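Hi V.,

You were right to ask for the full record rather than a summary. Here it is.
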Amino acid sequence: MRPTEYPDFGLTEEQRHEATFGHYYEYPGMDGERGEIWCYTDRFSYRPGDTAAFKVSSTAPRFDIAIARDGAAETPVWSRSGIASRWQDTPDQCSVEGCGWEATFELPIPPEWPSGAYKVALKADGRDGRPVTSEHLFILCPARSQRGRILQVAATGTWTAYNTWGGSNHYQGITGPGRNEYARQVSTQRPWCRGFVTLPADAPRVPIEIALPPMTKPRYPHMEWAYATGHSKKYASAGWASYDSHFFKWAERTGYGIDLISNHELHFSPEILDGYDLVVCVGHDEYWSWEMRDAVDAYLEKGGRAARFAGNFLWQTRLEDEGRRQVCYKYNARKEDPIYRSADTSRTTNAWDAPEVGRPATSTFGLNALKGVYAGWGGCLPRGVRGFPIYRPEHWAFRNTGLYYGDVLGQESHIFGYEVDGLDHVIRNGLPEPTGTDNPPDGVQILGVGLATQVEESADVPTGWLNDEDGRFAAETLYGSPSDENLEKVKRGNGMIVNFAKGKGEVFHAGSCEWVAGLLRGDAMVERVTQNVMDRFLGKSAS
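Predicted structure:
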C-alpha cells in the first residue's frame, strides 16, 4: 500500500513554500567561513588520448581527487592527493559568461579507459576542520564505433538548461535588469549543481508516489527534499544521477555492450553515429540543436535504428563559442531572439513545432511535447495512470510479456510521467490512430496511450506551482494567441509508445521521462520490453 500523506522533510509551511516557489542555488562563497571546493572541466566529453583540463577553485591550499567510471559497477580508475589549488574569482553572471577559471591540472586520458561516464570526487580541508567536498562528471566517448554495441546519447543539452550553479539557467535566474529573469544564454563552463552527478537512493523522483486522499492540495516533494538536504532544486529534472545513469548501468548489468556520448557529439561530430546499429536516448531529453537532429535524421535515413525512452522533445537550441554557450530564448523567442526577425527564421530558439521553426518534432522521433506534457505530479494527473495503457499487445515489442489489450505497462514502477510526448489522435474500433494534424511519420503505429495535461486543473482544489502558463504558451505558439479558446485546444495531452520506419531505418519511442524508473526499480515487464527493442535493433532477433 502506498502512503496517503506527503513525506515530511522537517520543513515549516513557509519553508515548503520557499522550496517550491523560491529561487535557491549554488554559488561561490555560499558556505562562508566553512570553506568550499568546486570543479569543472573544459569540455563535457573527451576521447581516449585527449587531455582533460580540470578547473578547480578551493579555499584550501591542496585537495585530493578520485575518478571512477560509473557503470554496472563503480570502478576507480585514477586518484591523486595533495594537488595545489587556490581560490579563483568568479564573475557575477558566471551562469551566462562562464567561470573563466584557469586550469588547475591536466590529465591525459589513457587510451585503455572504456567509454562511459566518469565521476570526479574532490575533497579538501575546510576551515572548521571538517572536509569540504564536491563532484563533477565528464563523458568519455568511444575511440571507434563497434557493431553490436549500443550508443547512448547523454542529454547534456538538457543538463545545461537545468543547471542551477551560479544562479541562472533556462528556467530561473539572476539575469536581467531586476536580477530575476531566466537566462537566454547559459555557459557550459561552470560546475554541475548538487544532485546531477550522484544522489542517495531515497531521493524522491518527480512523480508523486503517494495515494492522494480527496481534496489534497498539490505539493512537490522532490523540491522540498532538495531544499531540506542542500541539493539543487532541479536535481530531479535533469542530470546523470536522475536519468541517464539508470539506463547505462542496467544495459551493462544485462550484458549489453554500450558506449556513451554527449549531445555535443551529435552537433559537432555526427559521423560518430556511423557504425552503430542502435542509438538510444533516455530520460528527460528536452533541448536539441538543429544540427543534432540533422545527425540523427541522416543516421536513420541510411538505415540506423533509434530507441528513445525519453520525454519532452520540445526546444530548439543554438550552440555558440564552439559549444561553450547554449542559447534558448524559449518563451520570449518571438520578442527577443534576433533570428526571429531575420530572413530565415528556422533557427529561432522556440519550440520545434512553432510555425517559424517549421520542423515538427514528429519528423525525427514521431511524437511531440506540445501534445503532452505533464503527468503524475503536482496538480497534473496526480491520481492518473502510472504506466502505459497498451492497445496493440501483438506488437513485437511486447513479445514474452503476457500483456493483454488494455493492460497497463509499468504501473507498479511508475514509468509514465513526469513529462511525456504524444500525438493528436482518434480512437477507431478501439485502436488509436493519428489524425495527421501534427505531421506524424507515415506508417506510425501507436502502441500505448496515457493521458497528460499542460495545466493544473481541478474544480475543487486551487492550482499549485505549474498553473496554466505552459498551456497558454502552447496556445500562442500553435494558434497565435494565449486565449481561453486556444487554451482549450492544447491543454489536454497524452503520452505514447510508437514505432515507425524512417528512411531505411526504424524508430521506437516510449515518450516518457520516467521509463528509466522501470529499470531502476527492477520492473521485469519493462525490462523485457526494453530488451525486445534492443535485441531487434541490434539484430539479435529475427522479427
